[in-house]
Each structure stands twice: as C-alpha cells, then as structure tokens.
C-alpha cells in the first residue's frame, strides 16, 4: 500500500536557524509515532550525523559516495539509537561535492535518483540541507516533495526569504513540478521578549498558513542534546523542546 516516502527538505540558506535541530528532532518524533524515518545529512558539517550519535570518522561510506560514486544508498544507511529512525550520514568529503557536481552528469538529479532505491522502505525522508543555495541544496529540492523552512525568531528573520522562495519556484518550474513550501517553522522562540512575538507576527503576515502552529522554544536542553549524540526525545524526553517537536511531528502527519 506504500506510495513511497514523503521527502521533506529542511532548507534556509542562513546558518544557525535550526535546520539541523529540526531535522534531527522532528525525525525522532516522527519515529516515535511509529513512522519509519530516514534522516539524510546533506551538510558537509555533518551535524545531523554526530547529533544522532554516529561518528563520521568511523564511517566507510557516506552520502558523498551515494552522490558522486553511485554507491547504492541502502549500503550507506546506519541505524540509530531510536527505533524506526535511520541515518544516511555525511562526512567532510561532502564539501568537495559542491564543486565536483558542477561537471557531473545530471548534476541536479543525482540525489533524487539515489532515493528511488529506498523510497518504499520509509514513510519520511528528512533532508538536512547546508546553509547555501548551491548544488547540494538543489539536489535536495529536486528530490523533495515539500520544503520546510525554519526561521529563527530574531532580527532580520525575513531577510533572504524572498531569495529562498524564488529559488524554490525556479526548481519547481524546471526540475521538480511537485515541489511546494509546505512548512515554515518558527524556532528559538523566547517568550520573554517582545521581539520574538513581533517576528512571529511578521512571518505569519508574509508566509500565511504555511507557518506551523507549533513554535519551537529556545531552550538550552535542545542545544545540549547533540553533544550527547541524542535527539531531545531521548536526551530529555519530558522537556519543553521534546514536547514541541512532538507537536510538530503531529502537524506533519496531519493529526
Ligand atoms: P542550522 O542547521 O540552521 O545551522 P542548528 O540547528 O545547528 O542550525 O542550530 C544552530 C545552533 O542553535 C546550534 O548550536 C543549536 O544547538 C542551537 N539551537 C537550535 N535550536 C535551538 C533552540 N530551539 N533552543 C536553543 N538552542 C537551539
Ligand atoms: Mg545545520
């Protein structure tokens, strides 16, 4: 009965807005709901990889080999400490791919084709994009059904968004007609500041009903969890961050 995984790309060319934190913790929460989830780390920094307790130094293969060496993705996938949650890891090799892809055959669609091998094995594939709009992100957007854009509740939150939306529009027109921005997620919300509330209002005005009703709070536990190699749902299961990401997962599955 499977129609194949729903592929969601976490994209925003700004760094530090919560892409990786959302990729890891949304995925863990979806897995907790019994969905089979693959986190695909597409950032050479490998923060989603280490955040899920996998050490890049101990890996023989990574997403780099999938993109550049035609390694079947199923050979690269690692289990994690969370049931139902799997990882296609990144290592620093991936930094070279941004350049190597320029001259590669069908350079925008390599990830999409690789995912065909595992589409029926998962309910969700969550792609953690690097902080740029280069060929790695283009590969993610070409492979995705939907884009999730995390936005930090900070000054200049809307800066760069029109460029991101324009790029998604270009990919939709040329490479992936299915692609839509389905989710805008406000992150690092600090209820003690008027600014955060003001930013949420502005983003709602600009992005309308794409803005998720779940707002991710700023909490130190969310920033501590990655250094223990655990998603927040395992690291501190009852914390505000864990509860927020579980809410977000419910929004994504449509409950
Ligand atoms: P990106 O992947 O967009 O660069 P990250 O998810 O790595 O962003 O987040 C940037 C930094 O902010 C990281 O140190 C992360 O631990 C921290 N962080 C992310 N979300 C939160 C949050 N809700 N509360 C506190 N710290 C957060
Ligand atoms: Mg990141």
UniProtKB/TrEMBL annotation:
The AAA domain extends over 6-181
Superkingdom to which the source organism belongs: Bacteria
Q: What class of enzyme is it?
A: hydrolase
For this protein, the record's CDD domains field holds: ParAB_family
Which InterPro entries does this one have?
AAA_dom (IPR025669), DNA_Partitioning_ATPase (IPR050678), P-loop_NTPase (IPR027417)
EC number of this enzyme: 3.6.-.-
Question: Which Pfam families did the record assign?
Answer: AAA_31
The protein's UniProt keywords, in alphabetical order, are:
Hydrolase
GO MF terms here are:
hydrolase activity
The UniProt function text for this chain reads:
May play a role in septum formation.
Record family assignment:
Belongs to the ParA family.
Query: Under which name does UniProt file this protein?
Result: Sporulation initiation inhibitor protein Soj
Protein's organism: Ferrimicrobium acidiphilum DSM 19497
């Amino acid at each position: 009965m499977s129609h194949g995984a729903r592929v969601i790309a976490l994209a925003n060319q700004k760094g530090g807005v919560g892409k990786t934190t959302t990729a890891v913790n949304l995925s863990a929460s979806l897995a907790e709901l019994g969905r089979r989830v693959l986190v695909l780390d597409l950032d050479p920094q490998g923060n989603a990889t280490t955040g899920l307790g996998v050490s890049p130094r101990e890996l023989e293969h990574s997403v780099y080999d999938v993109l550049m060496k035609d390694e079947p993705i199923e050979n690269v996938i690692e289990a994690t400490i969370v049931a139902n949650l799997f990882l296609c890891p990144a290592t620093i090799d991936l930094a070279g791919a941004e350049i190597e892809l320029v001259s590669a055959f069908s350079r925008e669609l390599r990830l999409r084709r690789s995912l065909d091998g595992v589409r029926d094995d998962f309910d969700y594939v969550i792609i953690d994009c690097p902080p740029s709009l280069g060929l790695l992100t283009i590969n993610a957007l070409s492979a995705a059904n939907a884009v999730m854009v995390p936005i930090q509740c900070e000054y200049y939150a809307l800066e760069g968004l029109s460029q991101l939306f324009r790029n998604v529009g270009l990919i939709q027109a040329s490479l992936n007609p299915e692609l839509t921005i389905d989710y805008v997620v406000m992150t690092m919300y600090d209820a003690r500041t008027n600014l955060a509330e003001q930013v949420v209002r502005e983003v709602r005005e600009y992005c309308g009903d794409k803005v998720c009703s779940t707002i991710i709070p700023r909490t130190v536990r969310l920033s501590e969890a990655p250094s223990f190699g655990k998603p927040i749902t395992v690291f501190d299961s009852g914390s505000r961050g864990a509860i927020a990401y579980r809410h977000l997962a419910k929004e994504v599955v449509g409950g």
